[in-house]
Design brief:
There is one protein chain. With 176 residues, this protein is mainly α. The protein is built from seven helices and three strands. A three-stranded antiparallel sheet has the order 1-3-2. α1 packs parallel to α5 and α2 crosses α5.
């Protein structure tokens, strides 16, 4: 449980969410992450170490640079944060959700013109419909992650997908 909470807290920061996305498609050093995200090397290193210690990043290799050793990090995107309702405090969960929302706002500001899909839904559906929707969202995420390329690769476009799909609690039982 403590490990899962640590992962949730580590990912619950907009900058670290950006790093995880960046490191899905490429193995990068702290210096390269710093350049891509316009950060100081020290700031990038701090956040990368935190993500690594939480188990959200892997060291993909090391290389000698100017007499030192630079780690190359990657995000094993197949990792799914498996947190079961009661194991995480509402405060920890809220930190993560707020970080996602802040990152969504930043991405939206950077949006260009062109086709987009925006959806928001809170409704009641049959369980079979819910399972299909959940699977489609997971499939869309898998498709993007499987085909992610390093930043600024020729003939690619910079895209964003943020999805949070979950079963809502019963408002009646919440009042008891």
């Amino acid at each position: 449980m403590d490990e899962e909470i640590s992962r949730l807290r580590a990912a619950g920061h907009p900058l670290r969410l950006r790093m995880l996305s960046l490191l899905t498609s490429a193995e990068l050093s702290a210096a390269e992450v710093a350049r891509e995200l316009d950060l100081t090397h020290a700031n990038a290193s701090y956040h990368l170490r935190l993500l690594e210690s939480a188990g959200l990043l892997e060291v993909a290799g090391e290389e000698r640079i100017r007499g030192g050793i630079a780690k190359r990090y990657r995000h094993p995107w197949t990792f799914e944060l498996q947190v079961k309702g009661s194991e995480v405090s509402k405060a920890d969960d809220e930190v993560f959700v707020r970080a996602m929302a802040e990152e969504m706002v930043r991405r939206r500001r950077e949006r260009t013109t062109g086709p987009a899909v925006v959806s928001d839904a809170e409704m009641w559906v049959d369980p079979e419909v819910w399972e299909r929707v959940r699977d489609l969202v997971r499939d869309a995420s898998d498709l993007l992650h499987d085909n992610a390329r390093p930043p600024r690769t020729d003939d690619t476009i910079h895209v964003s997908l943020t999805a949070a799909a979950f079963v809502m609690g019963d408002p009646e039982s919440d009042r008891e």
